Structures are given as C-alpha cells and as structure tokens.
Amino acid sequence: MKILIISDLHIDACDRLGTFRWNQEDLIKHLEKMREFYNLEKIIFNGDTFELLKYTQEEISGANKMLMDYFRDRNFVFINGNHDLLNINGLEFYRITNSSGQVIHIEHGHNADWFNGSAMGRAISKFGFSMLRMFSGFDLLRKVYFGIVAVEESLSTMPRKYNTLKYLTYALNLLKDNDVVILAHTHKLESHHTYYLNKKKRYLNCGSCSLGRFQGIVLDTETLRYDLIKETVESVNKLYVIPMVG
Ligand SMILES: [Mn+2]
What we know:
alpha/beta, Purple Acid Phosphatase, chain A, domain 2, 5-stranded mixed β-sheet, binds manganese (II) ion
C-alpha cells in the first residue's frame, strides 16, 4: 500500500503569531490531489499537526472548521508531537509490518531531546509561548520571534537546530529493530541509507508543512521505495517530485 507521511503543520488560530500559512481549502484540495495521483491508502500526520503550545484546541478548531471536518477521514492517522500533546486522539508512534516482515516505524522524534521530550521542558516552552502571546501586540517582539523562526527553519542560513547528531543517533538506534524509521520534528526533509549486517536500513524525515511549505514522504510499504515531496503553496499546481529512490 502507498502512504503519505506529512508533519509539523503547526495549524494555528490564524492570527499574527501563526506559522501555518495555508488556506484550508488549498491544503484540502492538494491532499486530495495527492491521494488520487499516488493512489494513497493512508495519510499519516506525524506530529505537531496543531499548535497547542500557543493556542487552545477551541481557538484552533474555531479558525479551521473546514479542516477539522476533513480530518475526520478514517484513513488519516494522527501521531502526537511536542506541540500537540493535548490532542488526546494522537498515537505515540505508528508501525506497519509488510508482507515480507519488514517494519516501518513512524514517530514524531521529539523524545530525542530533553527539552521537547520531557514534561518539564515542555512546561518551560509553554510558558515562553504564553508570554509571547501576551506581548504579541509589540512589533519588535514579533520581529524577534519571526527572526528566530527564520534562523531555525533555514530560511536564510544553515539551520541551527538541525546542526546536531541527536536526531540521527535516535533514528539509528530505532533502526536496530526496524527497517524504515520516519521521524519529523526537525522541519528538515532528509533521507539516509545504511546497512546493518547487509540489511538495508532507511532513516527518513518528512520535513514540515508550515510556513507555506508542503513537504512529505510517499512510501510504498511493500517495496519500501519512496518519493520525497517538496512543494510550496505557490508550486502545488506544478507537482515537483524527486524521482523514486530507495
Ligand atoms: Mn516537534
């Protein structure tokens, strides 16, 4: 079966502090186009689908009614990230075993670091975001916040938060028991292959769909071949696909 894995949409309350930047209707249309084009059986949201550190569940669903209805589709799977742990329907991870016994492990990946992986670290960041919201009327503070986002997201320079081995190490550990590991969280689309005792292992990261991007992975769970999807709000009509590797 073919599945699409996307993550880190950070769907917000559509105010000045939001980083989602998709029109709900455009996103739905695009997901439907992908579903048809690839003949997808499942769409897996690999965490941080909702921005619950900055907003309440009510604020987010109030601003995104169409998307919330659309998300009721039974072929969608939701995994929790560090920004949507309040989403009680989310899974810790999702695992698929194919007919050859190969195991695909899908997880958000925030447990690789203390700050996002512990209750204490998340409480600190929740406090930080509530301060940000309280003072969001100040242009300077908003500028500083989006400046930090730009550095972290590699909009202008080498991304600071990905310049670390901890996520790769975490994925390599998971590959001991799995054939494919798909993480998210770093907002960096990537793929690495390695061999353990001649067994091919794949670590993939599905990137992010925030800031108007549409990144993700289409995986054939039987052949383990995949496409890395790298589009933007502007390019969704011209499907840009890197040829199948695997
Ligand atoms: Mn995350």
